[in-house]
Amino acid sequence: MLPADPLPSPSGRFDEDRLLPISALQHLLFCERQCALIHIEGLWVENRLTAEGRQLHERAHDAPDETRAGVRIARGLDLRSLHLGLIGKSDVVEFRLTDGKRVPFPVEYKRGRPKAHDADRVQLCAQALCLEEMLGVDVPCGALYYGATRRRLDVPFDAALRELTATTAQRLHTLIGGGRTPRAMREPRCDQCSLIGVCLPDSTGEEQSATTYLANAMADAIADDAGGGR
């Protein structure tokens, strides 16, 4: 991915070619290094957890749009916010009739269980802010559907969550615009990350690019082969 401009244009809006994925907000709040590996270095590795999550999203996107009990259900809507500099796609948006108006209610699907951190809530709120900007309507709340519990968790988009979402979007543009991958720090959550094999939290040094580390390791291996394994 090309480095993003960390600041919007003088008009206060980002150019189309500087929009960053909404999903990157979740990566950033989970781990800045993971976010940089994916969105600066272009690295991705799938494991069982990411595959289950991808399949859940695909099922949500692939089902046909429908109207159920007066609620219009749209799937896979393209989303963007030039104000926040974000672009993405919804899982489900329910358009509920309220006071004679169709009010969007975004629903994001997650494979696991509700989490202690705010990453999922911020990702969902970013979708709501995109819908508000695109449609010119207020989106007061949405929901997270967790595959492990098979239940929805309602999420109100209060002032605090909206502010956190906006500041996280700013942090994302600053990180990607800087073009530098933060150093690896070993934490318990690393064991669940699909990128642990390229992040190498037990091996990489401060501010070292995983791409550079892997290239150096490959060069050393080729040199060893050429030298007869010496």
Short description:
The chain is α+β, with helices and mostly antiparallel strands. It has seven helices and nine strands. It has a domain at 16-30 and 42-180: Alpha-Beta Complex (Lambda Exonuclease, Chain A).
Count of distinct strands? 9
CATH class of the domain at 16-30 and 42-180: Alpha Beta
CATH topology value of the domain at 16-30 and 42-180: Lambda Exonuclease, Chain A
Mind telling me the C-alpha Rg?
A: 20 Å
Order of helices and strands: EHHHEEEEEEHEEHHH
Seen as an oligomer or otherwise, the chain set is single chain
CATH architecture of the domain at 16-30 and 42-180: Alpha-Beta Complex
Distance between the termini: 38 Å
Counted by DSSP, the helix tally is 7
User: What is the topology, as strand order, of the major beta sheet?
Assistant: 2-3-6-7-8-9
CA-based shape? globular
Task: Give an overview of the whole structure.
This protein has 230 residues and is of the alpha+beta class. It has a domain at 16-30 and 42-180: Lambda Exonuclease, Chain A (Alpha-Beta Complex), CATH 3.90.320. The chain is built from 7 helices and 9 strands; from the N terminus they run βαααββββββαββααα. The protein has helices at 23-30, 32-39, 48-62, 119-135, 159-178, 196-199, 210-226; strands at 20-21, 66-68, 71-75, 78-81, 86-89, 92-98, 101-110, 141-146, 151-156. The strands form 2 sheets. It has a 6-stranded mixed beta sheet. Helix 1 (23-30) packs across helix 2, helix 1 runs antiparallel to helix 4 (119-135) and helix 1 (23-30) packs across helix 5 (159-178). The longest helix has 20 residues, at 159-178. The two termini are 38 Å apart. The mean pLDDT is 85.
